[in-house]
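Re: weekly structure request thread

Next one in the queue (432 aa):
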Amino acid sequence: MKTILVVEDDRIYARTTANWLVKNGMDARYVLSVNSAKEFLSDHEVDLVLSDFRLGDCNGVELLEWMRVHGYRMPFLIMTGYGDIPGAVEAVKKGADNYLPKPVQTEKVLDVIRELLERREKRRNPEQAFYVCKSPLAVKLQEMVRLVAPAESLSVLIRGASGTGKEWVARRIHALGGRSDAPFVAVDCGALPRELAASELFGHKKGTFTGATEDKTGMFTAANHGTLFLDEIGNLNMETQVLLLRALQEKRYRPLGGKEEIQADIRLLTATNEDLERAISEGRFREDLFHRLNEFPLHVPSLRECADDIIPLAGFFLSYANEELGKKVKEFDMDVRKAFRAYSWPGNIRELKSVVRRACVLAQDEWITLKDINLPMEIKPSDNYRLDMERTELEAIVKALETTGNDRKAASQLLGISRSTLYLKLKKYGLN
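Done, posted below.
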């Protein structure tokens, strides 16, 4: 049961709101002041905070800012009366998830709360939000991720070709580690202008350089208490590499043009598809920084190396494409499956996702066929009669599994085949 903390200085309204949440299946507690809220958060596990905007001499924004400074990253909602709406809007700009006009005891507010709690649960359990590959190399990688996630003192360098899912690996490490409720900030170093990279990472003070018309907070500040993921780390210029190495060693950094140092309370994860050893020999990457980042290297295999995952992963992307595009495409026919297995996938998972989404748009009925995919290879279509039979068989297997709740013994009995035959057919159709 999810715990919601109600922060409201009107005792009657606080109790009424908490009781209403309890009646709707939630564990709700209430406190009457900001100081009481701080004490409660320090002693209890809380999944969401529902705070009034006005709280005596304080307000909900002050509580929100305290929570962010001290690493509390659960969803935060502001309750407000009509006259406080401008202040509530300002609270959203500072990090509140939403503001709710009083009275809040409505079905719409319940929907908002449930959505935020569900989103938080998915961040805590990333398996629910992504297909977890089953091929040997992928399973080995997942085991390494589980081992290193709690070891926050180790720097992790994620290596692999473009499109293999390096950022997803970083998000898994973040989600399974001790900072899962704090921000995950991803930076593509290849997209940073070389002359502005240091400013983007560490921030700058007004007037530091031409165009610095105001103070700017960098990515290190945005990721405070959380995880900073630097993708394509090899693209950083040498000056920024020096600043990054110092920040990692000293656990402090200074915004450009600033005089005071700031504590760097982050977990740094990096990734590259470049040969950094060659970059070191060519004088483009610092060797000392490489060794600091490469304490725990992870290699992400290519999609071609995980061939058993191609069809299940395509099915996963199809389910999301259906939801996103409002389609009801059921499956890939056997010719498409054959093509997917034969293709080399140089763009890896990113390319597969793109191909599936496009095919979902083009599909005219409940099946994706060869005419719906666009792969640079020639495939001879199968015999139509045989194809129709296979399609019917696949539909029957899927329906039997759905009917029995994926009980394969019961499904084989429904289909009138042995369990070993069912397993062979599951492997044939990529339904393992």
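The domain at 127-299 is CATH 3.40.50.300 (Rossmann fold). The first strand starts at residue 3 and ends at 7.
Next request, please.
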